[in-house]
Design brief:
Elements (H helix, E strand, L loop, with lengths): L2 H25 L4 H12 L4 E3 H8 L3 H13 L4 E4 L6 E4 L4 H7 L1 H19 L4 H35 L3
């Protein structure tokens, strides 16, 4: 097989993976364009790409790349890095992006817990709505404690499996 044929096959395989994994992320609730950009970054050997590279690979506009990267950066799934000596930014996915994304959800859960506590107090713990909110609050408190413990177990497992970064 010629090198260009091998390269074309590899490009097709990467494209199939990107679209397939992105579809799974969309099904789980992620927006389509951020899902595609994330999958493209994840499948790149370097783990990073410029806006132009993402646009070319995914056949999307610079505005679409910008919006997707903004979303992914806000959810801590990618980071922005300035290329040395250049004004161009590279967008990078890290091996621990899921860890970061999940642990950063703790702040959201804390806010939800605060709102639910206020709801229970406002509506009364003895009302049907208050009891429902109290159960929801207990669920989030349980999840929060489990996430903290699970992430510590993951950190130890990751270190054993992949070594320190």
């Amino acid at each position: 097989m010629t090198e260009s044929a091998s390269s074309a096959r590899e490009t097709e395989a990467v494209s199939r993976f990107v679209e397939s994994f992105a579809a799974q992320l969309v099904e789980a609730g992620m927006q389509r364009m951020p899902a595609r950009v994330f999958a493209a970054l994840l499948s790149s050997d370097e783990g990073s790409m410029t806006s132009a590279e993402l646009g070319e690979q995914l056949r999307i506009s610079p505005a679409a790349v910008s919006g997707a990267v903004r979303y992914l950066a806000q959810t801590h799934m990618v980071s922005r890095e300035r290329e040395p000596g250049s004004r161009r930014e590279r967008y990078r996915v890290h091996g621990n992006q899921w860890y970061e994304a999940l642990t950063n959800r703790e702040a959201v859960i804390k806010r939800w817990e605060g709102a639910l506590r206020e709801g229970v107090t406002s509506l009364g713990a003895d009302t049907p709505a208050g009891r429902r909110m109290a159960e929801t609050l207990a669920f989030f408190e349980f999840i929060e404690a489990e996430i903290v413990e699970m992430m510590e177990r993951w950190r130890v497992h990751r270190e054993k499996t992949f070594g320190q970064e």
